[in-house]
Amino acid sequence: MSFVTNYGHRLYSDDFVHQLDACFGEGDFYDNQTNPRKVEQFLNASLTFEDGSFDGVLVWDTLQFLTAPLLQIVVERLHRILRPGSCLLAFFHSEEKIDTIPTYSYRISDHRNIMLVERGRRRPAQFFNNRSLEKLFQEFHSVKFFLTRDHLREVIVRR
How many CA atoms lie within 13 Å of 12's alpha carbon, on the beta-carbon side? Predict the structure, then answer.
């Protein structure tokens, strides 16, 4: 956080994975994401910002753990809270046939380095290829993909 704030930027930080576990963790994590009461609880805890409140959003690898209906709602809210011209960064695991994937905590160290601390493994809700990501972010102005060495698809979208 200090790397970003040292440049004079304000920063809001929330642990989406923690919020997901708090709202959907008891019982079947993915089935619980279809419960309207739990979905509303998650949205109220995580995404109740005014339209155009943010110049950028780092969602890291969290979106890959949302089922399709909840994912669409979250992406729509992210689009709404971003100012026009601002960007969103997300990561999606690129291996189709893997049962579980590592989850991470991310910390921006400096202008060249991000520290990753593994938080365990989770089953992704679905696999994302370039086409499905383009469709997911279709309301955004542009979508760019980069495949990393460690099987992550880095996605940068501009509102």
Answer: 12
Q: Using CA atoms, how far apart are residues 28 and 30, in angstroms rounded to an integer?
A: 6
The pair of structure tokens assigned to 151 is 């099987």
Element (H, E) at 69: helix 68-81
CATH topology of domain 2-158: Rossmann fold (3.40.50)
* Identity of the amino acid at 78: L
Q: Degrees (nearest 5) of the Cα angle 24, 26, 29?
A: 45
Task: Please give the model's pTM, rounded to 2 decimal places.
Answer: 0.86
Hey, where are the domains in the chain? Answer: 2-158
Residue entry with tokens 């099987």: 151
Give tens-digit pLDDT for 70-117. 999 999 999 999 999 999 999 998 888 889 988 888 877 888 888 888
Across the range 128-132, mean pLDDT stands at 91
